[in-house]
Amino acid sequence: MNPLDGLQEGIAELLEELGSLKLSGPDSFFISQYTVWMVIAAIVLVIVAFAAKKREALVPKGRFLNGVEYVVQWVRDDICRGVIGKGSEKHLPFLLTVFFFIVINNLLGLVPGAKPGTGTISVTFAVSLIVFIYFNFYGFKHQGIGGYIKNLAPKGIGPLYPLVWCIELISLFLRLITLAVRLFANMYAGHIVMGVFAMLANLFLQAALQGAGFAIALPSIGWELLIIAMYALELLVAVIQAYVFTLLSAVYISLATADSH
Amino acid sequence: MKAKSATGRNALLVSLLASGLSLAMPVLALAEEGGGGFSLLIPKMGEFIPTLIAFIIIWIILAKVGWPMITGMLDEREKTIKDSLEQAEQAKIQSEQLLAEHKAQLDEARVEAAQIIANAKEAGEALKADITAKAQQESADMIAKAHLAIEAEKKAAIADLQSSVADLSVSVAGRLIGENLSDDEHLKLIERYVAEAGSLDAN
Predict the structure, then answer these.
(1) Domain ranges of chain B
(2) What number is the ipTM of this complex?
(3) With contact defined as beta carbons under 8 Å apart, do A234 and A194 qualify?
(4) Which terminus of chain A is less hemmed in, N or C, by CB atoms within 10 Å?
(5) pLDDT 10s digits, A78-91
(6) Which residues in chain A (23-82) have CB-CB distances under 8 A to chain B?
């Protein structure tokens, strides 16, 4: 028998499993596995933050505290101060929350059996909506509502101004979607790839067990190695995507609160 | 404290806006009915609303009592390290100055000590020469005095001797005149005289 026969069916199953499954609640407002994992990630984040806070001392002690502090310092120096610059301190708590919320969701999804909260568009869209409202709120606050709307397009482009303004307005709202989709697609695709590799490893092994000969199990080893490589890659992606999301949030805040476009 | 409460207020405002916008979501949710791959990109309310709520709650909690503690400690540590380094630098400069000062003082003290020793040697030499000269002078004086005394004694002795020789001569002459001397007696007399004179001379 051909071990690839079961692939089509397996992939359909995998996609269904990676979709939002109704756990409880009405059809229009059901709690899915992603909701549960997002809440777990949120609880983990609070525990991590408070455990770090409790261990705080002038002379840092222990790997845990040093690790958390390293990340906090990195977000503060590289993202917050690096991008926003002057007056960045007030945005730091928000950016720290964004980064930690996303990175913990992403990393939790790498635990076998767990799902990343960010593996569904609903969660990433919620965060990107908050970021969108946040940077526009500060834009309005900093430049005034009229000033912010007027400054969407740069000055000194003459008759092109209305056209550029429309494009800028569209790109402003596109940020909301690109932020959400980028993060979701990365996490979702990574899990599909790992799932397919795992399925292939399984199919070849099963074929061997069903008497198709020992040699047919050998590709399983290759697939397993690929899964390990993908796992390493996904670890990187989990952190990089959290970084990209936070970095872009900082860029949007900095654009909205800049003195002149 | 003021900044913290401002963050909390802003978080609340943003969350109000977010929940307002989320009311528009059912419109999008209706589009989901079409199904297919596109449904993946349609937010589901059961995931979307809890995320909004969870995120905003976490944001408010951590912005109020979580991050400020950690970032505050980072700032404090930075400041402490910077201050300590500056203090150490200051202390180093001070100790270097002190060392230089002490070295200079030591050198000065050495020069002074050498000067004192040289002075003392000079003074000692001078004193020695002085004492030697005085002693020589004194001994010379003493010798001169002794010479004078000896000379006086000698003169006195000579005068004494002269007077006793005259007396003796007178008494010898007296005896020669007063007695009848035989030849033999004469001889004895002369011998006695000579012996007397000799013993006198021996004195």
Answers:
(1) 2-91, 154-202
(2) 0.85
(3) yes
(4) N
(5) 998 888 888 888 89
(6) 25, 28-32, 34-35, 38-39, 42, 45-46, 49-50, 52-53, 56-60, 68-69, 72-73, 76
